[in-house]
Amino acid sequence: MPTTPPPDGLYDTTSLRSAAVARLLRRREAGHLTHHDVRRVAEAFAVHWRTVRRWMDNADTHNGTYTPHGRRHFTLTPTMHDALARWHGNVTGAYREIKADGLLGDPPHASLATFHRAVNRELSPGQRAALSGGEAARRRHDVHRLRPHGNRNDVWETDHVEASVWVNVDGRRSKPWITWFIDHATAVICGLAITPHRPSSDAIHAAARDAILCGGHHRPFGGIPCQVRVDRGRDFLSNSVDDAFKKFGTELIVLPPYSPHLKGTVESLNAAVKHMLFKGLPGYSHAPTSRRDRRGQALWKLEELLQYETLVNLVLDWAEWWNNDHTLARLYRRTPAQAWADDLTPIETITPEALHTYTLKSDGGPLKITSKGIRWKGAYYIGDWMHGHGSAGERVHLRHEPNHFHEVHLYDADTLAYRGPAFRSDEMSQRQARLLEQARARQADHYAAKARKARRNASARYAATSQPGPLQRLNRLTASQATAQLRELQTPDPDPGHQTRPDLLHRPRPTSGRWTAPLPAPTAQDTP
Question: What is the distance between the alpha carbons of residues 90 and 83, in angstroms, rounded to a whole number?
Fold first, then answer.
């Protein structure tokens, strides 16, 4: 039987009790009230029959209407609420201030325990958390409804998650990132991509290709989704990602900020991989430390860490286990693969060739193939298919993966037919790349040390004191030292161009024979 909503008005938990008491009073006035009626009402409310008699006596006192008084208790005033806000939820500190101001009377008519009970009674857990931790703390107490599951490929969710594991990446410790797409209805991991550093739009494209394609190493799950939920990450909002999904007819739903609950499926997946996989691996970044651990030293040595390739295999194996062996309660204890197979919704697929074209970024107008290849971004690109076919002089469109400048893909400017890939002809060697990276790291360390020294010199230090008094500066210099430093800081760089732009040539000094001197300014006598 459906429950009808109550009419507008004020309600409390005693409304049903008042109706039962009123019925007993009417039976008593009619002369039909028995002790069995009183005991039956007492059993319904799980109280003693004498309590029901007291309810009837209360109604007789208030002209036949049951009016419970309730227990008297201490209530907070607006001034007390303001004190709680000033103390950021510190109830004891607010009580001391209110007591010192005399707002509780002399002697105070409310103890600290009474004040605590009043705060807990009048403020909800979310309101108390907001006073101490702000809006972010209050949101943790919000209640959210469950989304309807729908069918497979109706909605996907995507996100980046940082692996809580330090790994060895080419002799350096780093924490990789995982980008994956998960189906909301079946919780199937459709595709993923792993990068040894913070990901960008190229990781999203790689994960999307892995998620959309079916079969082979791409898993049997995939297809073209109807919608994809993303957060407001800068890479998810890039034009290349938006254009790629628009070509599939997929709607990209950009969620409002600070709302991880709106993509709870992928957020649960992020928490699951950290708890189920990363905690048991060497190099776990959140491992507890002891007092004997040396400060400033890494908990895991470089030789103890996993290689990056090993972690990639472990994450891929864990994704297979999640899809095929792990059961979920919201899927009625089925695995995601079983829920996917039980859903008979048709899957829209696309060929790998067309998908590869759609996920590439276009670089504008057509380019001309010269005898050296295609010139783009200050480098020449050449492919094996250009030799022996007289390709010089042809015009082609260039496409490439985001941030992948070592390889491009060329398409005919007229027919848009795929011609083939092209690679940079003057690609640097691995040794050059390593030396360049080391030089950049040394330069970054050098300027970081200079920045630390500058901040240390700019901050003033004062002596510690235990009594009120004027400040006593510690890092004071002698008069001659201060004069020397002022002279050094105020003297301009004799050649600032050499430091900032070493590629610029110095201009020659003007001479009287080569330069025309400006005309002198007119005076008052020259004007008519």
Answer: 9
The answer to whether the pTM exceeds 0.90 is: no
440-467 pLDDT, tens digit each:
788 888 888 888 877 777 777 777 878 7
CB-CB neighbours of 102 under 10 Å: 9
Euclidean distance between CA atoms 49 and 468, whole angstroms: 70
Do residues 156 and 211 touch, judged by C-beta distance below 8 A? yes
Query: Alpha-carbon distance 306 to 277, whole Å?
Result: 13
Measured CA to CA in angstroms, residue 110 lies from 74, 97, 113, 123, 466 at distances of 7, 14, 8, 18, 36
Structure tokens at 130: 């907001």
Cα distances (Å, whole numbers) of residue 106 to 74, 112, 290: 16, 15, 51
* Distance spanning both ends of the chain, measured CA to CA: 106
What amino acid occupies position 139?
A: R
Which amino acid is present at 114?
T
131 to each of 91, 101, 123, 136, 454, how far by Cα in Å? 10, 22, 10, 11, 38
pLDDT at 320 > cutoff 90: yes
